[in-house]
Amino acid sequence: MIRFSSIGGLLAAAAILCPATTLLAQSKVAIVNIQKAVVETAEIKKAQTEMESKYRPRQAQMEKLQGEIRQIQQQLQSMTGKLTPSAEQDLNIQAQRKQKDLQRLGEDLQADVDRERNDVLGKAAQRMQDVVKKLAEAKALDVVVDVNSTIYFKPALDVTTEAIAAYDKAYPAK
Q1: What are phi and psi of 33, to 5 degrees?
Q2: DSSP strand E in the chain: where?
Q3: Helix (H, G, I), strand (E, B), or coil: what is residue 124?
C-alpha cells in the first residue's frame, strides 16, 4: 500500500507540473539589445551629428587655448635666462590664466554635452521600450528579455534589428 500511495503522489505531482511545462514550452520568447537598438537608430545618429557640429566651436576655442598655452611654455623654455624676472612672471601668469580658462571651458562643455546626451538618450530609450512592446504584441511574444540580463540565447531569438527598423519607422529622424 505504501508503494501505491507514493506512486499516486508522484502521478499527482506530475499532473500538476505537466500544465506548467506545457505552458513554458508554448511561450514565445525574444531577446533584444536595448542599448544597441537605441544607439543605432537614425534619430540618435542624427542627434550625435548635430551635437558634434553644435559643440565644435567650443572645442575649437579649447584647442586654440591649448595652442596658446603651448606657445607660452615654449617661449619660457626657449628664453630661459634671457627674460627679466618680471617678464617671466607675466608669462607664467598668462599661462595659468589660460589654463584656468581652458579647464572651465572643458568642464562647461562636458556638462552641456552630458546633459543634452542624457536627455536625447532618455527620450529615445522610452520610445524604444514602447516600440519593443508593440513589436512583441505584433509577433505574439510572451516575453522579451534584454540581452544584458541573459546568459544564453539562440541568435534567432534576437529582435534588435527589427526593433531598430520599427523605431526608425515610428520616429523618423527629422
Answers
A1: -100, 90
A2: 29-32, 143-146
A3: helix
Q: By C-alpha distance, which of 99, 114, 94, 117 is closest to 48? A: 117
Residue-wise pLDDT for 17-56, tens only, equals 445 444 455 889 999 999 999 999 999 999 999 999 999 9
Instruction: Name the grid cell of 144.
Output: 522579451
Domain boundaries, the chain: 2-170
Q: What is the pLDDT of residues 111-168, one digit of tens each?
A: 999 999 999 999 999 999 999 999 999 999 999 999 998 888 899 999 999 999 999 9
**Which has the closest alpha carbon to 103: 66, 55, 57?**
66
Fold assignment, 2-170: Protein Binding, DinI Protein; Chain A (3.30.910)
